[in-house]
Amino acid sequence: MPLLHELKLRFASDDDIFFQPDHILHIPVVFIGLTSLLDLIQTKERLTKDAFAKQGLAADDAGLLRQLGESIDTGDLRSAVTSLLSGKMIVFHKPSETFIAVEAASKPLTRSVEEPSDESVIHGPRSAFNEDIDTNLGMVKRQLNSDKLAVKSYAVGANSRTRINLLYLENQVEPALLTAIIGRFESNKELDVCNLQQLSRMLGLPSWAAISPYIRTELPQDTVHYLMRGKAVLLLDRFPCALVLPNDLWSMLAVQNDLNYPRLFTLSFRLLRLAGVLCHILAPGLYVAVVSVNPEILRIEMALTVAQSRLGVPYPALVETLILLFVLEMVMEASVRLPKSIGPTITMVGGIILGQAVVSAKLVSNLLIIILAAATIANFTISGFVNSISIRLFKYVILLLAAFYGILGLLSGMVLVCAYVSSVTTFGIPYAQLARKSRG
Amino acid sequence: MDKTLQVIVMCIVTHLGLMFFLFPSDVMETVDVGHWLPILVGYLLHFAFVALYTKGLAYYDRHDLIDIFLTGGRTIAVLLLLPLAVYFIMVNIITVRAYSEIITIVFLSNTPLWAIMALLLTIPTYIAMTGIESIFRTGMLLAILFLPIVLFVICVSFHNTDWHYLFPLLERDSFNFITERPFLKSLFIFTGSFLFLGFVRPTVTYNRRRILIASWILLPLVLLSVYIPLLTFGQDTASMLQFPFILAVDTIDITWLMFDRITGFFLLGMVTFVMLFVGLVMWATNRLIHRCMPRVRPEWITLMLGMVIFAASLFVRDWGSVHRLFWWNSIFRIYAFSVIPLATYLFGVMKARKLQVSP
To answer: Membrane spanning segments where (chain A) (predicted)?
Structure first.
């Protein structure tokens, strides 16, 4: 019995595996499976019922067992291992040397469909993706009832197999994009994909770009919207987001749920987000430029107020801004990291530091606190967490230029950011493509 | 892909960046009354040459200017394109140097000139390196961000105008200006920013007719750039000023704005457009040089070009030298403005004839 022996050898260091002699009806068999992935009692029950129903259909015992699942060749260790790892059970019939992989009742290792935790939705469809790739695919199919939806399935990785589904609408997707993605999947099948950096490497996307090549969304509604706009969607197993390729500038301003409101509201939401983007990248730079380089552009009353608020602050505006920004970034990072029960502490501590104490200690001006608080709030108006990180980075470029060149630096920083944003392309499709005509 | 809109926006934005600084004083030097006449003549010349140029280009599908001239042989191509390359490089030097000076005067009196020039060159160099399609997208983004500010300033600049200064509309012997130095200098705003159309053909397609129609948008803007200072100060005062339009905008006092000088924002909006212009011209120059040295990577050529322009700008000592350089460049400018479009047109016609004869 080479295969059984090989399996035992292969899983010698994995105590999770079981080889259990048992019977289906009257037939003596050995059940082989992984305890952590399947529910043996339920599976047995199901198998017995199934065998009972199919009793008359087969001539002999081995024939009956073959009716229950897929038979595996005795030499095919690879597919036996894959079946076991994907949660199937193997039934071994000793007299006829037959191996059959049967669907098993899986243990509940996936949470049920829940509300989105990272993208809240107001008055819109509220189910979000979870870690199970099949559930996610099902949710997309539920949302988009179309025979044009194509799904290509890949299992990649040499050490750990990861399932990836590629979804697109046949009549909408950019053909060049599709060929490029499929080509990369085919040629880099052996690369492990455990995180998005590895996925980017597999797809041959630049790894140092300041703008993410994907849009991430955990909402099936948004995913479908992107599909209909001709984008390709990747679903990764054990990853509770859909990855939309390629990213575009518009995704920073538009949320699909906007369209569930009257047009005027939609427009105002999007304008507000645009204002948020501009406020976040310009406000700190504007403060530094106005305080340290070009105070004359302000009205005299305004300039005096600004100067007054900085009375007693011992260091230059750039240092002051950088210190406070550093604290703010730390607060943001800490509140992501902290468990929900301790979260309020950071709010309180941060609030005290940033609110009163730092001003009364004359370490920073209170105007700066107002400006940075506004800028930070503005950052959260941007749709998509990853997009907001890009904007957070761009802010520093503009801040530094503004410290050297004042308002000129501020605006040339904007030119630089615009030029960078325009130069980013994913699979030849520009990030700053503002409009794309719908195909077909 | 059809990029007509992007091409139009690019043309308008780069023209906008150039027209509000030196142009008004040149026109006021040209004539004392009836300023619309030299502007109109300049504009019509521009329109005619753009029409010829695009017509000539249209005969060749997906060929750039270099390919077209190479059909006439290597020597002819070099003879035709060498002055163009010199013109482009000089335009960059002058623009960077002049705008740095303007920024120092209006804005950053304490910052050393070289630092401003370095900024005004670094960013265009980066823009030029990203390639033409990216330049067009940058143009669109900048237009979306800064055009509203610029249009707002243009609208409020009517604040202090006195319409009596509009008259007289014409006087006798009005056409004497055509051969005069200030008029030839004033033509510069029309020359720089349409020649790039000849280099974008391989990647970008556009609708010629719509571009020609859209170019009429420029006329009112050019008229405004001269007439706003004129209506604010009158010819006698305005002609004494170095940057009449900037000063006219400086006179505006809007109480409800928190900024004291909206000139700053206007000027800097313009500077962003100028950066784009310099980037565009650098890209076109890069194309010319790259054809001569196909082995060197285009990024390196752009980088070297940026350094050469920076070094050259350092050698221009004062505002007088800028003006002298500007005048020397007129020869190349008129060449680029007239000979290149005409040659392109002739090459196009010749090709069309050949096609007619051969089948």
So the answer is: 271-293, 313-331, 343-361, 367-386, 398-422
